[in-house]
Design goal:
The complex is a heterodimer. Chain A is mostly helical. Chain A is built from 13 helices and no strands. In chain A, helix 2 (about 20-35) packs across helix 7 and helix 8 runs antiparallel to helix 12 (about 215-225). The mean pLDDT of chain A is about 90. Chain B is α/β, with parallel strands linked by helices. Chain B has two domains: about 5-95 and about 215-255, Rossmann fold (3-Layer(aba) Sandwich); about 115-175 and about 180-205, no CATH class. Chain B has helices at about 20-30, 35-45, 75-80, 115-125, 130-140, 155-170, 190-205, 215-220, 240-255; strands at about 5-15, 45-60, 60-65, 90-95, 95-100, 175-180, 205-210, 225-230, 230-235. A six-stranded mixed β-sheet of chain B has the order 5-6-7-3-8-9, sandwiched between helices. A three-stranded antiparallel β-sheet of chain B has the order 2-1-4, with helices on one face. In chain B, helix 7 (about 190-205) links the parallel strand 6 (about 175-180) and strand 7. Classes of the chains: A mainly alpha, B alpha/beta. At the A-B interface, helix 2, helix 6 and helix 13 of A face helix 1 and helix 4 of B.
């Protein structure tokens, strides 16, 4: 193994293994953000609730969907999507946001990535509370498939890690990337079945293939389906799982090649 | 056995600014061929901050880095600290390197004094037990008492400095890297601060210190190198290198006059 790969793997190991640090700083960052506010971290869930309850009814009417089905679908989709979207957006600025630290100490760069992903997992569970309320209102069935959202979330979080590593490297070198992503990410939300559902479209429309080739659809579905009480399709599992080795391969390649340069780019 | 060795270390900084944005990089890709190459060479500005540094330090060495502004002292310190990985050559480290460029890594003014002790301690590589063991001592040195339960944004500048100083001087450094001395804040604290610094220095196996204060270098260090434009131009016992440095200063001023 070349020394570049060895030191990249050391960085990844040191970053992941120091769970005391990433768990602490993930929590602290959330607490700091909402310190001295009345609702604390529940502000993010509140914002999701406002969006779901204000737009949900309108969109249900637009797409001719029954609210009892549409509202839980939309809420679950938005919560999962928000997790992925923040991993993409915050991932691209992870190193540049921590420039002060990275230029004064030797810190495993992966630690910053894992902290960010962990923080967003915590946010996910705060948002999950809104989904529980929606579940109670519209009586979403809870079955054997429901707990499957946890392994699904693990798959999505692991994908979030490699996406963040790749984007953090590229985003540090090219400062246009985080700006570019801001716009792209919102487009991705419209192109992925989150506000609209698959079955409203695929009736005889070739766009069904576009959905199948959209990896984000599978990542969302692998968590959303169990939240709605259904087991995800095998394809959702397969795509989400297959993306992990492919993505980490890419991340490891870029990381081993450019990791020593990152501090110089800050 | 603690040691640190630099073999033919080179550090080149590429200046990224307006000329090397994504757009121009894309254009370079699009134009391709030898034009791009020529243009690339012309437009890329690199600065050689360190050039062929060879150094070997073992236990008990207290190295002073001497040189003008921009001679490469800070860059060399950051290479020692592992912040910059050299663009050429190798660094071989045996032991734990602690750099105190940032006295309070992980500090957040919204967190309480106690929380910040843990934050900084973790970034300095202390274990949870180590932090717990040292917290009473840090609290005592800081002299902040029950203020430690309050968010640090309520502290005065002096209080913040004292706490940061108390934390930073509690580490167990194998190889200690310092840029200038350690600032301790107000004068009433000076005696205690001196003791803390002395104890920190005696705990460290190797010290690397860069400073403009020749007095400080002379009292803390036993060996020195003189840097000029990223190269070592003179090395040896502190007194000799300082003499060489001062001669060089005198020479350059007399040349100026002439």
């Amino acid at each position: 193994m070349s020394p570049q790969y060895a030191s990249a793997l050391t960085d990844i190991y040191e970053g992941c293994a120091n769970w005391r640090m990433w768990s602490r700083f993930g929590w602290l960052e959330i607490r700091r953000r909402y310190r001295r506010t009345l609702f604390g971290p529940f502000w993010t869930s509140f914002n999701v609730a406002v969006m779901v309850f204000s737009m949900g009814f309108l969109w249900a009417a637009l797409f001719h969907q029954a609210t009892s089905r549409y509202m839980p679908y939309l809420t679950a989709g938005i919560i999962v999507w928000q997790f992925l979207a923040t991993c993409i957006n915050e991932g691209a600025t992870t190193f540049s946001a921590n420039a002060g630290l990275l230029t004064t100490m030797r810190v495993p760069k992966t630690l910053l990535i894992v902290t960010m992903v962990w923080r967003n997992i915590i946010v996910f569970f705060h948002n999950f509370l809104i989904f529980v309320i929606v579940m109670l209102i519209w009586r979403v069935p809870v079955g054997w498939a429901t707990p499957l959202f946890l392994p699904g979330l693990l798959l999505v979080a692991l994908n979030g890690c490699w996406i963040a590593i790749v984007l953090a490297i590229v985003g540090t070198r090219y400062r246009d990337i985080p700006q570019l992503l801001g716009g792209l990410v919102s487009i991705m939300m419209f192109l992925t079945p989150i506000m609209w559902s698959r079955d409203t479209l695929s009736r005889g429309v070739a766009i069904g293939y576009v959905i199948d080739f959209n990896p984000i659809y599978h990542l969302v579905e692998v968590v959303r389906a169990p939240m709605l009480g259904e087991a995800p399709e095998l394809m959702n599992w397969l795509v989400s799982a297959a993306l992990i080795p492919i993505g980490f391969g890419l991340a490891l390649y870029l990381f081993s090649r450019f990791r020593p340069r990152i501090t110089y780019w800050l | 056995m603690t040691s640190i060795t630099l073999e033919n270390v080179v550090v080149d900084f590429t200046i990224y600014g307006t000329q090397m944005t994504f757009r121009s990089e894309l254009l370079h890709r699009a134009t391709g061929g030898f034009i791009r190459k020529e243009q690339g060479n012309k437009r890329r500005v690199t600065i050689r901050a360190l050039d062929g540094i060879n150094l070997s330090l073992k236990e008990g060495d207290r190295l002073a880095l001497i040189g003008h502004n921009g001679a490469g002292k800070s860059t060399l310190l950051k290479v020692f600290a592992g912040v910059y990985e050299p663009t050429g050559g190798r660094v071989l480290v045996n032991g734990r390197v602690s750099a105190l460029f940032n006295l309070a890594p992980g500090w957040d003014s919204e967190d309480s004094g106690y929380e910040n002790i843990t934050n900084c301690g973790m970034f300095f590589g202390m274990s949870r037990e180590e932090i717990e063991r040292k917290t009473p001592e840090i609290a005592e040195v800081s002299g902040l008492g029950s203020y430690l339960d309050l968010p640090t944004r309520t502290y005065s500048a002096g209080m913040t400095t004292r706490l940061a100083f108390a934390i930073a001087t509690s580490i167990e450094p194998g190889i200690l890297v310092l840029d200038e001395g350690l600032s301790a804040g107000d004068a009433s604290f000076a005696e205690m601060a001196k003791q803390r610094i002395n104890s920190l220095l005696s705990r460290s196996r190797i010290l690397i210190l860069a400073s403009h204060s020749l007095e400080l270098l002379q009292s803390w260090c036993n060996t020195a190198i003189l840097l000029e434009r990223g190269r070592i131009v003179c090395s040896g016992p502190v007194a000799d290198v300082i003499e060489a440095y001062q001669k060089g200063l005198a020479l350059s001023t007399s040349q100026h006059v002439a």
